[in-house]
Write a structure and sequence with these properties.
single chain, 487 residues, alpha/beta, 6-stranded parallel beta sheet, 19 helices, 47% helix, 13% strand, disordered C terminus
Length: 487
């Protein structure tokens, strides 16, 4: 690999800074600034983001066909003209707009937050046809501005070859990541112009694209508000994200995001929606005391490459954990091992089939397989497990917050995948040494859970079932302070 820009795979922050310094005056970025109509500072953040997003070390690389990469930018104006809505009149402006996916997702994670938002509001689902309510907009990617299409018709034929030349110079596919930046800007600007709001709330914090905030600031006068939606580590695809306000699981993620050079106006730890949604289940299962142990070791499903969108090294790390668990099973036949499936909807059912095929083919008879109905089954099973083992799933820290025990095992060789700073609950070992693994599993199986460790509380601000209300209260308080300041 050409290392024209130093550190672009070993130290991606250093590499991104060097890349932006060296190429900020390149024709590709001059054209991007012309189209995005952004400041020099915004453009540099976008350049660093685009650089990090296309590094081969990314855990979840951007999935895109070669044809779409090559022809996508040049044909984007025609595609948007034919496929997007561009002949529209603006809707009435609202105080808040909240982006969601479908009714089950909204009801489980955001309905109480939405109900408690002050002032006028609008819901922006990715599947509006599934909702039966009047306060809906089209999805965020459905609309474009006619003026943007006209400018894009001029810029795209010039920008594509400039990005090809830049990509060849640094041996990274910047054509792909910059094309996606143009797409994000164009569609979000169309959304914010067509459905104007003061504040925009989204669960889509992966990766808090800078182009989205550029579009937001050109159309709205409030805050772009992101809510954390999953585990976040020191990985390139999360670097240089942008938000005005970021509601996080816990204070540890402030440190992580600052290390990733995220451009965030205000961080607020509030707890995790995914965990707090199960607070009632936790109370139910613990109402008669400590839940009985049904499973000695519970391994958390994290998919299998390429079906989970991750590179091969990720699945190799998962398989090495399973191989050590299988060896543990042979040497300790009395220990019951179980594989906890994630929830797979109908659209991703073939992912589950790939996981089951892997288990049956490589580890026949080793693991009992536990289903997942999407209604808290994995949390219920964690409460009944002596030990939960994972690579880097949020369920590891959630197990600790539930008063259970967990072991994170990083065999990938990528330190960005190491989740837990407490060595009692973390193995980082590219050699996948079985003896070390056996010692940790045996030790944790034998000990009592004790109090929730500090490393879990750093990741989760609170576990009380009130995250939605806490976010709504914070937003209501900001609105009240702003009104008082005006008076």
């Amino acid at each position: 690999m050409n290392t024209a820009v130093p550190g672009h795979d070993d130290d991606f922050i250093v590499g991104a800074e060097a890349f932006a310094q060296r190429y900020r005056g390149h024709a590709a970025f001059r054209l991007l600034r012309f189209y995005l109509r952004c400041s020099v500072e915004e453009l540099e953040t976008l350049a660093k983001f685009a650089y990090c997003a296309c590094l081969p070390s990314n855990t979840i690389p951007i999935q895109e066909s070669l044809a779409r990469t090559v022809f996508g930018l040049v044909t984007m104006p025609a595609y948007y003209f034919l496929k997007k809505s561009w002949l529209w009149s603006p809707a009435a402006k609202t105080e808040f707009a909240l982006e969601t996916i479908d009714p089950p997702y909204f009801e489980a994670w955001f309905s109480r937050l939405y109900e408690n938002l002050p002032g006028s509001k609008r819901l922006s689902p990715r599947s509006p046809e599934l909702f039966d309510r009047s306060d809906l907009s089209l999805p965020c990617g459905a609309s474009v501005c006619l003026g943007d299409l006209a400018r894009l018709m001029f810029v795209a034929p010039l920008l594509a070859p400039a990005l090809v030349a830049l990509s060849m110079a640094v041996r990274l596919n910047l054509l792909k990541t910059c094309r996606q930046a143009v797409a994000a800007y164009t569609t979000y600007r169309g959304y914010f112009r067509r459905f104007p709001c003061r504040h925009f709330i989204t669960f889509d914090d992966y990766p808090n694209h800078p182009a989205r905030r550029i579009a937001f600031r050109q159309a709205c006068d409030g805050e772009l508000i992101a809510i954390q939606n999953g585990e976040r580590g020191h990985l390139p695809q999360l670097a240089y994200g942008c938000a005005d306000r970021y509601f996080l699981f816990g204070p540890k993620f402030i440190e992580i995001m600052k290390g990733l050079k995220a451009d965030v106006g205000r961080y607020e730890p509030v707890g995790a929606l995914c965990l707090n949604q199960r607070y009632g289940l936790y109370l139910e299962e613990t109402s008669r005391g400590v839940p009985e142990t049904r499973y000695d070791v519970l391994f958390v499903d994290q998919g299998v490459s390429p079906h989970n969108g991750t590179p091969a090294y990720y699945t190799e790390a998962l398989l090495r954990i399973l191989e050590n668990l299988a060896k543990f099973h042979r040497l300790h036949p009395g220990v019951r091992l179980f594989y906890q499936l994630r929830h797979y909807d109908e659209a991703s059912r073939f992912h589950q089939e790939a996981v089951l095929a892997m288990l049956n083919g490589r580890f026949p008879g080793v693991f009992g397989v536990l289903g997942n109905d999407g209604r808290g089954e994995s949390y219920r099973n964690i409460l009944h497990a002596n030990l939960t083992v994972t690579f880097e799933s949020t369920l590891g820290f959630e197990a600790l917050m539930l008063g259970r025990k967990a072991l994170f095992v990083n065999y990938s060789g990528n330190p960005g995948e190491t989740m837990c700073s407490d060595e009692r609950y973390q193995i980082e070992d590219p050699s996948a040494d079985y003896g070390r693994f056996e010692e940790a599993v045996t030790r944790l199986l034998a000990c009592e859970p004790g109090e929730v460790p500090a490393v879990a509380r750093e990741r989760h601000f609170a576990f009380d079932g009130k995250v939605q209300e806490r976010i709504a209260a914070a937003l209501s308080g900001s609105r009240a302070r702003a009104a008082a300041a005006v008076v």
